[in-house]
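ERR on first pass: missing label on line 2. Operator R.T. fixed the label and resubmitted. Corrected input:
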Amino acid sequence: MKIYFAGSIRGGRDDWYLYREIIALLSAYGDVLTEHIGSSELAVTGEDLPDKEIYDRDLDWLKRCDYLVAEVTRPSLGVGFEIGKATEWGKRVLCLYRPSITPSLSAMLAGCEGVTLQAYEEIEELQLVLANHFSSTAMK
Ligand code: 6IA
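pass 2 clean. output:
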């Protein structure tokens, strides 16, 4: 099973350490194609690739994934774009967010039928959330 994890890059790297922990939890369920999102070395000015190469590579991974899991507490244009594409392509999409920081999410996520939203505050809560999500949406 292939999982595409999406998290803010140019939208701000405040939560990079949290992304790293979520990626570690996700790796119990499949191959996480985007482990670099949780890297401390990927800064806002980060990866040394032309934008077009990043775009082509990421969309290719997104097309091949079974699940998109996104941490959407920090608004990111790129993450929103990826969620839009994934829902259009019929991927299973789980969006995780912390209401203490972002109490009301964009209606484009909150109102989208193709998106499963899950609020949480502590990383410890996610173990159960992910177990439930992957067992209830298991690939046939
Ligand atoms: O708009 P954002 O940059 O916050 O968008 C973040 C999302 O877009 C992530 O979920 C990634 O999948 C994708 N993305 C955006 N930029 C990159 C990137 N390097 N490398 C990999 N995925 C990316 C950006 C380097 C840049 C800061 C020079």
